[in-house]
Automatic annotation (TrEMBL):
Molecular function (Gene Ontology), one example: nucleic acid binding
SMART domains xrefs: DEXDc, HELICc
Domain of life: Bacteria
Any one GO CC term of the record: cytosol
SUPFAM superfamilies: P-loop containing nucleoside triphosphate hydrolases
Similarity-based family: Belongs to the DEAD box helicase family.
Domain DEAD-box RNA helicase Q: 10-38
Pfam entry (one): DEAD
InterPro entries the UniProt entry points to: DbpA/CsdA_RNA-bd_dom, DEAD/DEAH_box_helicase_dom, DEAD/DEAH_RhlB, DEAD_box_RNA_helicase, Helicase_ATP-bd, Helicase_C-like, Nucleotide-bd_a/b_plait_sf, P-loop_NTPase
Keywords: ATP-binding, Helicase, Hydrolase, Nucleotide-binding
Identification of the protein by name: ATP-independent RNA helicase DbpA
Species assigned in the record: Microbulbifer donghaiensis
Signal peptide: none
Amino acid sequence: MTKPDTDHPRDFQSLPLQQPLLKNLQDLGYERLTEIQAAALPAIVAGKDVIGQAKTGSGKTVAFGLGVLHKLQAERFRVQALVLCPTRELADQVARELRKLARAIHNIKILTLCGGMPFGPQIGSLKHGAHIVVGTPGRIEDHLRKGNLDLGDVQTLVLDEADRMLDMGFQAVLDQIVAQLPPQRQTLLFSATYPKTIDALATRVLRDPVKVEVTTAHTESTIEQNFYRVENNEQRPAALHQLLASNDVSAAVVFCNTKKETDEAARALKSAGFAALALHGDMEQKDRDRTLALFANGSAAILVATDVAARGLDIEELPMVVNYHLSRDPEVHVHRVGRTGRAGQKGVALTLVSKKEIYKLERLEELMQQPITLQEIPPLPRGFAPARPLMSTLQIDGGKKQKVRAGDIVGALTGEGGIDGAQIGKIQLFDFSTFVAVERTVAKKALNKLASGKIKGRKFRARIVGV
Ligand code: ADP
Ligand code: MG
């Protein structure tokens, strides 16, 4: 993989694009390339596979849109490009932008195929044919399975907002779709974040990709470590409360050495009004799955966990970790702290240390090669009340074994009388149950929509399992 160099083109007219496309960009008032466009377009136009990582609003649609249109053969009325998006709203946005870009070329047909919309008209449109199909994975796969859609002539595959698609549980469906595409194709993958799961997807689906990454801030991660003095163990619950209150972050993991401490710390936080959950090895697997799902999808703000239990947690952005006790093993400490400050984000690591633990601190100083000073615990800020988490979780009593798929659930939640696709967060499928994050404010509405409708022609029981 290569990183972008610095002498990128800065204006569209210097790109080797077809004249009508360039003229249209001028008419649209697009002059200067955005950073991601400058970094990605040369490789895209050259026909290479590209992984593009950049924030929302950075102009990714124009980047892949120009790549798709540049090589499109208007006179060949076959589906030549497939663009997959996580939700209908995003697919509609992409289709709108593509139509603007395609105005320069005569008679380019762009068709959207999304879940939550009736099947019949889509089948009708497919009979009329299209050059470009934009859609959500579940519905595209449905059409493929039913033989309505032939992707044998696709030259460009675009995975837009790939991280969101994986968050929503579309991984298996994506693989099924990709299996039906010609191996000789260009694949463009765009994502705002780059967790391990995206890397795995990219390895399966892309060939020798050029990776371009545009991060506005510094890419070096910075972790701020602070150590706080506590007199004894009895003081820890209150100290934890004070620390979390004065470092008001959206999410934090509190590391404990034992199961007993985990329960103690979680209880203290809950009674102080925090959306906290305990996680330890003695819990049943299904309870652990639920706890991890609630934390990872933003329905719980604080996870209090032992080291072993926290291994199951795979999240890219964690603003803070707290060590309830300093670990006996300095390597473990470093590992815990490394959970925060990933992906170029700023992270905070706070550690409670009692007199009895000074010997551990000395070992850590040795490993870190720097002296550590202990600070006093900050007092509780006046009038502080913990914020409610943004998301809430619906647990559905149906999962992979019932052939429930993320797309089915998105379909069941959106549409007539339902919620907006943008209000749906992570969808995690297990064998017999599924956890769906939705914005807290629409959780009841989402539950009612599920209760009144069907998933895969069946009724499934569901409930809200927020904290
Ligand atoms: P992303 O997919 O990265 O979130 P979009 O592709 O939706 O971002 O682009 C965000 C907005 O920026 C859109 O309204 C688009 O029309 C506009 N835009 C994209 N590229 C340019 C450009 N080079 N100059 C001016 N506006 C642009
Ligand atoms: Mg986009």
